[in-house]
Automatic annotation (TrEMBL):
It comes from the Eukaryota. This is Pentatricopeptide repeat-containing protein. Pfam families: PPR_1 (PF12854), PPR_2 (PF13041). InterPro entries: PPR_rpt, TPR-like_helical_dom_sf. Keywords: Repeat. PPR repeats lie at residues 119-153, 154-188, 189-223, 224-258, 259-293, 294-328, 329-363, 364-398, 399-433. The lineage of its organism: Eukaryota, Viridiplantae, Streptophyta, Embryophyta, Tracheophyta. It comes from Artemisia annua. The keyword Amino-acid biosynthesis does not apply.
Length: 487
């Protein structure tokens, strides 16, 4: 009936019926539907009907059925496969976007084997997909396959593979391919240099990145904002913020406009280096040139202020974020909590912790531990243990640092029995004490134990590494004390 409707130029009805049949039959129905198609061929109408069937399968995302239709048509003696090349084109486009890239490329080679014309753009797309998936060797195979089909790789082909190598950490292969680019008569462009410079910066090879930058400029290529930002980011990550600001100066001199990413990279670098005043000046500059500070900008500034001990300015930044409708994230809250704890404002830090949870944010174990440490330093060990319970309730598993903080709190207030109980409890939970744990305990015994045994305990600090040794030492000293008392 589908072919009959097409034969009588009732194309819309034919397509509607095709859609209805495929919707009812569902996936894996291409075999039976194709056989029915062959049984009712009407000369020229077969091209329309076949395309309609394949397109309908694609519309329903039954890609495997569409592919199978092409395979069946290719192997059929009753059909001239060349008539279906346009249909192949749409299938190939869908295959490039399939989750199974390898299957898509294998079928594409099958289609080419039937005489379908090879297209460099399709090869490049498959290469890009493989590279994006981190399957650089598969992308290399696609690259090598081009010549077999009479294609000459374009600069886009080379750049796609160079980019893939660099992202996979295979920088030397990327440079090897750059040499092949030049030997093939191509001139590396800004993109080629950009990905290689980025790869060098990621490996902290800044000197080589600078040399490559100079080579690019020497060839008359104008570095763009991406390259400048890449270099600036590499310099900031390696604590060379002064050099990063110099590179920003070169960027401005060359007339290359910085974007928000560039400014945020510099602000973050300046704040991490404690150069808060320069960071604030840069934020004012970015505002003048039309960029609005975002969450990343403010969070970097807030974190920097807290680390430099300027809590007042940090809170001003927080208030400004709230006024501008910017929601604080985990990083911002953790920075503020850290700053408050450092200043001894542990109640305020706890209030921020509560605020985080109310907003649906999840404080991590480090954030909880900072607040626990703050309470323990104030002598409020009970509150520290309350927060430990909350950590567990929230699904966090306290580690050795958290337990050492609590242990230190107990020992500082002379609760040595509770400290020993905590030691046993953490071992039962699978948390292995370290030398810091035992040194905290020994210091507690030195301070609150028998003064006559002080020097003996002090001499053992740094030498006790396990529970058995610790218990042996403490119990031995206790028995020794009892013996001397009896005498």
């Amino acid at each position: 009936m589908i072919t009959f409707l097409s034969h009588h130029k009732m194309y819309q009805d034919s397509e509607s019926l095709t859609r209805f049949v495929i919707e009812k039959k569902g996936k894996h129905s291409s075999g039976s539907l194709f056989n029915a198609f062959l049984d009712t061929l009407y000369g020229k109408d077969c091209e329309f009907v076949f395309s309609s069937i394949v397109n309908c399968y694609l519309d329903y995302a039954f890609v495997s059925d569409a592919v199978n239709c092409l395979k069946l048509a290719k192997s059929s003696k009753d059909l001239n496969f060349a008539r279906f090349y346009d249909t192949c084109g749409r299938v190939v486009d869908c295959l490039v976007d399939m989750s199974d890239t390898a299957s898509g490329f294998r079928f594409y080679l099958d289609v080419l084997g039937c005489g379908y014309k090879a297209d460099i753009r399709v090869f490049n797309k498959f290469m890009h997909r493989f590279c994006k998936e981190g399957r650089i060797d598969e992308a290399n195979k696609v690259f090598d396959e081009m010549a077999k089909w009479g294609l000459r790789p374009s600069l886009v082909s080379f750049n796609t593979l160079v980019n893939g190598y660099c992202k996979a950490g295979r920088l030397e292969d990327g440079f090897r391919l750059k040499s092949v680019v030049e030997e093939s008569g191509f001139v590396p462009d800004v993109f080629t240099y950009s990905v290689l410079i980025n790869g060098l910066c990621r490996e902290s090879r800044l000197r080589d990145a600078y040399l490559l930058f100079d080579e690019m400029c020497g060839r008359g290529l104008e570095p763009n904002g991406v390259i400048f930002t890449t270099l600036i980011n590499g310099l900031c990550r390696n604590w060379k913020v002064g050099k990063a600001m110099e590179m920003y100066g070169k960027m401005v001199t060359r007339g290359v406009k910085a974007d928000l990413i560039t400014f945020n990279t510099l602000v973050n670098g300046l704040c991490k280096s404690g150069r808060i005043g320069e960071a604030r000046n840069l934020i004012n500059e970015m505002t003048r040139v039309g960029f609005k500070a975002d969450k990343i900008t403010y969070t970097s500034l807030l974190d920097g202020c807290c680390k430099e001990g300027d809590l007042r300015l940090a809170l001003e930044v927080r208030d400004r974020m709230v006024r501008e409708g910017i929601v604080l994230d985990n990083v911002a809250y953790t920075a503020l909590i850290s700053g408050l704890c450092r200043e001894g404002l542990v109640i305020d830090a706890e209030n921020l912790l509560r605020e985080m949870t109310k907003l649906g944010l999840k404080p991590d174990d480090a954030t909880y531990t900072m607040v626990i440490d703050g309470f323990c330093k104030k002598g409020d060990v009970k509150m520290g243990f309350q927060l430990l319970k909350e950590m567990r309730r929230d699904g966090l598993v306290p580690g050795i640092i958290t337990y050492n903080v609590l242990m230190n709190g107990l020992c500082k207030v002379g609760q040595m029995k509770n400290a020993n109980k905590l030691l046993k409890s953490m071992i039962d939970l699978g948390v292995v004490p370290d030398d810091i744990t035992y040194n905290i305990l020994l210091e507690g015994h030195c301070k609150y134990g028998d003064p006559d045994r002080f020097e003996k305990l002090r001499g053992e600090k740094g030498l006790i590494y396990d529970y058995a040794s610790y218990i042996s030492l403490v119990e031995g000293l206790a028995k020794s004390t009892e013996y001397h008392e009896k005498r």
